[in-house]
Design brief:
two-stranded parallel sheet; single chain; mainly alpha; 2 strands; 6% strand; flat
Length: 106
Amino acid sequence: AYSAKEVFDAAMRGSRAARRAIRDIARALARAIAGVVAVLDPDRIILSGGMSEAGSLILSHVRREGAHILPLSFRPSRIVNGKLGNRAGIIGAAVWALKNCPFLQR
């Protein structure tokens, strides 16, 4: 098994297998995002964690696939990379804990 970073690095070095894997991942991610867009119509979709560290490598595929799946309502510009990278999950958990755990509140 390879980490996401290893796959992204291999794709940047020109690995066809890694690039194919990224296209497959982007297709699955675009389907999931299309479902969210169809039901909730959010203003923005933010990719974070390891996905955001791939930058435009995965973002361009997700945008293209999403526009193909939902051509009338999928606006590619709404999908952006988060700024917190792999720290997003831990920061979100900490914020949630501070807001919801009585023993952490003043």
